[in-house]
Design brief:
This protein is 40% helix and 21% strand. It is α/β, with parallel strands linked by helices and 247 residues long. The chain has a single domain, classed as Alanine racemase (TIM Barrel, Alpha-Beta Barrel), CATH 3.20.20. The strands form 2 sheets. The protein has an 8-stranded parallel β-sheet. It has a two-stranded antiparallel ribbon with strand order 9-10. Strand 4, helix 5 and strand 5 form a beta-alpha-beta unit. The radius of gyration is 18 Å and the shape is globular.
Length: 247
């Protein structure tokens, strides 16, 4: 695709990759994995990203993600589900997600485990930790004190494999202390599962801070994709999606 949008994405990717490279070199760490968050953007953009060398994409709404995944079936991509997940969507998400980042309660563990067994699949998951100083349920994530018990639930679910932890920095606060808390939770998980070494943290505005505190996977949307489009990728009758249908 040799068009202005591809050129825009290529330029943005170059800048983001340079930021990641510089941050990881400064921290003395291996280069973190870039997950490009493509929510609200169409399958055409996912094809453009793949042509530009992107290997990992993230989505946070099941209905959008499942349709987009189907439209990109020809691409060799790793699909990350990074949004809050209702238990009744577990079966759908397991059908396409390589890694679910947002396991935060026992009921979801049960639903994902059941769906994974039905699909004859072992589903990779991360435990989402709520990093707000005072946990806010609407933001998702397990309270830190509840993480050990939740980890036990995941380890008892043989349809699931815990790969590490995920967190979102608190709104309007210094992300450093929050990512430090996430790093502590990651160490707790590794004590039980040594190869659960994924720390999913950091977005467009705070990726450098996340790298300092050990992030291995960075979820980058705006810095690569640009601002949310006024015309979004959205569902139409029949479960399919239109590119460019007005909100």
């Amino acid at each position: 695709m040799n068009d202005p949008r591809t050129a825009e994405l290529a330029q943005n990717l170059m800048a983001v990759r340079a930021r990641i490279q510089a941050a990881c070199e400064a921290a003395g760490r291996p280069v973190a994995k870039l997950i490009v968050v493509t929510k609200f953007f169409g399958a055409d953009d996912v094809h453009r990203l793949a042509a530009l060398g992107v290997a990992d994409v993230g989505e946070n709404r099941d209905q959008e993600a499942s349709a987009k995944h189907a439209q990109c079936a020809d691409l060799e991509l790793t699909w990350h589900f990074i949004g809050q997940l209702q238990s009744n969507k577990a079966k759908s998400v397991v059908s396409y997600a390589d890694l679910v980042h947002t396991v935060d309660r026992p009921g979801l563990v049960k639903a994902l485990d059941k769906a994974a067994h039905a699909a004859s699949k072992r589903q990779d998951v991360l435990i989402q930790v709520n990093l707000d100083p005072t946990p806010r349920p609407e933001r998702g994530g397990s309270a830190p004190d509840d993480v050990p018990g939740l980890l036990d639930r995941v380890l008892a679910a043989d349809g699931l494999r815990v790969r590490g932890v995920m967190g979102v920095a608190p709104l309007g606060e210094d992300p450093g202390p929050a990512f430090a808390r996430l790093s502590q939770m990651a160490a707790l998980v590794r004590d039980e599962v040594p190869d659960a070494d994924v720390i999913s943290a950091g977005m467009s505005q705070d990726l450098e801070v996340a790298v300092i505190h050990g992030a291995t996977h960075l979820r980058i949307g705006t810095a690569v994709m640009g601002s949310r489009p006024n015309v979004r990728y959205r569902p139409v009758k029949g479960g399919k999606f239109n590119e460019g249908e007005a909100q």
